[in-house]
Amino acid sequence: MSDVTLQNFEPEVIEASRQAPVLVDFWAPWCGPCRTLGPMLEKLEAEADGQWKLVKVNVDENQELAAHFGVRSIPHVVAFADGQAVDQFIGVLPESGLREFLSRLTPDPAQLALHEAQTLAAAGDRQAAGDAFQSALALDPGSDAARFAYISFLLDGNALADAEAEFGKLSPQAAQEDAYAALRTRVEAMKGVSDLPDEQTLTSRIAADPRDLPARLDLARLLIARQQYEPALDQLLAIVRTDRGFEDDVGRKTMLSVFDMLGDHPDVVSRWRRQLSTSLN
């Protein structure tokens, strides 16, 4: 906890909030409720161990700051994050209310670990990313979203057995999520790759007989396993157009799963959805 004035407000609050949230406690020595709130905030700041920072502004000595933030009654607490005022409250909250207020400002440790894992994975540091994914799941074992991300990461590294083991740790509700079907499709495609003919053989079969739907499906699965999603969609759409009922509508169903795999590319998904819709009409 530190005292802040107009002269040091910029570095102590605005710039500091770009690293971690900052709570500004507007108070005065004569304010009884301020003497109740202040120690509570100081206690919570100590518990937070750097996750957020508390500063105090004496309104009697810093009337310009108080006026700038519309402080008319004290205690008045303003929260800053990323250089901006993002929340506030007036008066004394019970400790439970303060904790709830702070929970909206401070990032969840599991989410931080997940974000770090995804950043490391994107940078190609798979060892560190794997450790970060496991940290995120240790902090929140019930997070299906985090486990979906970890399964996708494992599949990217061809760790098929590990990915399948993680499926067993998902909640019963996870099977209703779009990501579940997408990842299962990818797993099944990867599992079957060793039993499939090579790409050249499949391509030759299709060239010789465009209605060879088993060859088209095998080629689509081969391409999905390689994460070559658009060429796979091309084969699946051909199946839909040729025989909608082939293998219980497998062409359309697999296309929907691939759309979920392409969630980060909405423009691509939109283009192929239009083509699928046109083919179904």
Automatic annotation (TrEMBL):
Pfam families: Thioredoxin, TPR_19, TPR_20. PROSITE patterns: THIOREDOXIN_1 (PS00194), THIOREDOXIN_2 (PS51352). Gene3D superfamilies: Glutaredoxin, Tetratricopeptide repeat domain. This is Thioredoxin. NCBIfam families: thioredoxin (TIGR01068). Residues 1-107 form the Thioredoxin domain. The lineage of its organism: Bacteria, Pseudomonadati, Pseudomonadota, Betaproteobacteria, Burkholderiales. Keywords: Disulfide bond, Electron transport, Redox-active center, Transport. Belongs to the thioredoxin family. The keyword Transport applies. The keyword Electron transport applies. It comes from the Bacteria. InterPro entries: Thioredoxin, Thioredoxin-like_sf, Thioredoxin_CS, Thioredoxin_domain, TPR-like_helical_dom_sf.
